[in-house]
């Protein structure tokens, strides 16, 4: 593989007062357009990414893109105007190129390529993290997509640090850049690392030093303290939040306030419950009755990591699909803490 010349000296880290750019991480089966609308409305999220569109050998019809990304019909932004990248996953450069061009034709303004998915079903059919075993394939896929879409459409990539181990992290990062990626999100684990802590942020720092494009740090940024440490370790000016954004939906606002030197009162549980209710109300008629409340329970599994109240709420509704009971349970949760259960002190959500 041909590599362009890379700067060998260390690039200085961004000066700390600069407001970092905050990305929502793609999450298949979890962060759909409703969740993107909600998270971007809360604020502090600069860029969203869709779940992946699976590309095999076929030419996908328009509806496949618009189903996963209805925002394509609205200028590829969420209702509040936050840009949404369309993510593609696949191992065949020609098919990826064709479908990227199609995505742009139907409204995509920015394409992201998935080289991180660890799922067996995906890896067995030649997509996601398995491609990291061959950096030249990463380069070929990025280059094919880059060449297939107009110059003004950014093409980015998202990688893990490797497949079996983390040894290929620089080769794959360089391959993405050599293929023409405009920026690179790095989930700081190998495929085999799965989602087990820790996330190895120090590798991201090295990638950032070696590449000329923006590198976005991702993995286990659960708290404001995690963010500060990751910024220090990586020197990055862009950060991506997935499970952590669901656990702490205003983490972006917290980071913005920190960067601006402003005080900020993090969302309290009753406010989060109201947002969750909003999501429930918007989506309740979209699923068969036997699944009513399932998406809420899924989100509560993440919220439990930051809000102890979420555990209580989850226990209350976990066996129920009854509309009336869910409404009643939500009504209780949306009461401010002092009128609701004064004996339950609100947790400091900035604590690790
Ligand atoms: C349920 C789930 C679905 C995911 N789906 C995708 C996906 O479609 N595309 C992708 O690039 N990464 C996907 N990821 C990885 C996340 O984008 C992110 O890299 C990872 O969760 C680490 O960030 P976090 O610690 O903030 O969650 C997924 C992760 C989870 C837990």
From TrEMBL:
It catalyses: 5,6-dihydrouridine(16) in tRNA + NAD(+) = uridine(16) in tRNA + NADH + H(+); 5,6-dihydrouridine(16) in tRNA + NADP(+) = uridine(16) in tRNA + NADPH + H(+). Residues 24-316 form the DUS-like FMN-binding domain. Keywords: Flavoprotein, FMN, NADP, Nucleotide-binding, Oxidoreductase, RNA-binding, tRNA processing, tRNA-binding. Its EC number is 1.3.1.-. SUPFAM superfamilies: FMN-linked oxidoreductases (SSF51395). The active site is at 117 (proton donor). It is an enzyme of class 1 (oxidoreductase). GO terms for molecular function: flavin adenine dinucleotide binding; FMN binding; tRNA binding; tRNA dihydrouridine synthase activity. InterPro entries: Aldolase_TIM, DUS-like_FMN-bd, DUS_fam, DusC, DusC_C, tRNA_hU_synthase_CS. CDD domains: DUS_like_FMN. It comes from the Bacteria. Its cofactor is FMN. Catalyzes the synthesis of 5,6-dihydrouridine (D), a modified base found in the D-loop of most tRNAs, via the reduction of the C5-C6 double bond in target uridines. Specifically modifies U16 in tRNAs. Belongs to the Dus family. DusC subfamily. Belongs to the dus family. This is tRNA-dihydrouridine(16) synthase.
């Amino acid at each position: 593989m041909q590599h362009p010349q890379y700067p060998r000296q260390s690039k200085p880290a961004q000066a700390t007062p600069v407001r970092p750019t905050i990305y929502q991480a793609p999450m298949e089966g979890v962060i759909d357009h409703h969740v993107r609308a909600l998270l971007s409305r809360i604020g502090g999220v600069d860029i969203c990414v869709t779940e992946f569109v699976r590309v095999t050998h076929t030419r996908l019809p328009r509806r496949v893109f618009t189903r996963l990304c209805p925002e394509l019909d609205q200028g590829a932004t969420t209702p509040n105007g936050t840009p949404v990248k369309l993510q593609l996953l696949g191992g065949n450069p020609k098919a990826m190129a064709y479908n990227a061009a199609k995505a742009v034709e139907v409204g995509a303004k920015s394409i992201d390529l998935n080289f991180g998915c660890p799922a067996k079903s995906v890896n067995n059919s030649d997509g996601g993290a398995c491609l990291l075993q061959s950096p030249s394939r990463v380069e070929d896929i990025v280059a094919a997509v880059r060449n297939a879409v107009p110059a003004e459409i950014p093409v980015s990539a998202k990688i893990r640090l490797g497949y079996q181990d983390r040894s290929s992290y620089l080769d794959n990062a360089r391959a993405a850049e050599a293929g023409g990626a405009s920026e690179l999100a790095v989930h700081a684990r190998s495929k085999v690392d799965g989602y087990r802590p820790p996330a190895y942020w120090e590798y991201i720092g090295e990638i950032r030093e070696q590449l000329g494009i923006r590198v976005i740090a991702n993995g286990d940024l659960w708290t404001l303290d995690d963010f500060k440490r990751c910024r220090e370790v990586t020197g990055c000016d862009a950060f991506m939040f997935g499970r952590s954004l669901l656990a702490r939906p205003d983490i972006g606002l917290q980071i913005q306030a920190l960067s601006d030197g402003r005080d900020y009162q993090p969302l309290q549980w009753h406010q989060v419950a109201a947002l969750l209710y909003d999501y429930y109300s918007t989506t309740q008629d979209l699923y068969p009755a036997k699944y009513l409340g399932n998406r809420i329970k899924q989100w509560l599994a993440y919220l439990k990591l930051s809000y102890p109240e979420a555990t209580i709420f989850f226990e209350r509704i976990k066996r129920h699909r009854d509309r009336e009971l869910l409404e009643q349970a939500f009504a209780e949760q949306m009461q401010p803490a002092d009128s609701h259960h004064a004996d339950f002190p609100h947790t400091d959500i900035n604590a690790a």
